[in-house]
């Protein structure tokens, strides 16, 4: 998942005021886990900037459903998250 300059509000059209340089890539063998981590990054930025949670209820439901039907894990305590900082 490209998280170099994510959009945390107002999509799908671009809104430069709601874009920031996160500078990351989210990679994994579990697409559900990748989506869950991406949603959490967006949610944290939105709360920091706007003071309320990201209203992506449908997005979260899709991730939960994907886990329910066995496509991967959406539980953060089951996701082995490794951060690598490159300089």
Task: Give an overview of the whole structure.
By secondary structure, this protein is mainly alpha-helical. It has 2 helices and 2 strands, in the order ββαα. The longest helix is centred in the middle third of the chain and has 20 residues, at 31-50. It starts with a strand and ends in a 19-residue tail after the last helix.
Keywords:
single chain; 87 residues; mainly alpha; two-stranded antiparallel sheet
In short:
With 87 residues, the protein is mostly helical.
List the total number of helices.
2
> Structural class given helices, strands, pairing?
mainly alpha
SSE order: EEHH
Percentage of β-strand residues: under 5%
Count of strand segments: 2
End-to-end distance, in Å?
Answer: 20 Å
The number of domains: 1
**Major sheet: size, sense and barrel closure?**
2 strands, antiparallel
Helical content band: 25-40%
Spatial ordering of strands, largest sheet? 1-2
Question: What is the 3D shape?
Answer: globular
Poorly predicted residue ranges: none
Radius of gyration: 13 Å
Task: Give the integer mean of the pLDDT values.
Answer: 91
């Amino acid at each position: 998942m490209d998280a170099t300059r994510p959009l945390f509000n107002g999509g799908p059209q671009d809104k430069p005021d709601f874009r920031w340089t996160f500078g990351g890539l989210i990679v994994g063998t579990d697409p559900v886990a990748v989506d869950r981590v991406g949603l959490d990054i967006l949610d944290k930025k939105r709360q920091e900037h706007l003071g309320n949670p990201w209203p992506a209820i449908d997005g979260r439901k899709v991730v939960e459903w994907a886990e329910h039907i066995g496509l991967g894990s959406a539980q953060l305590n089951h996701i082995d998250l490794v951060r690598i900082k490159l300089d």
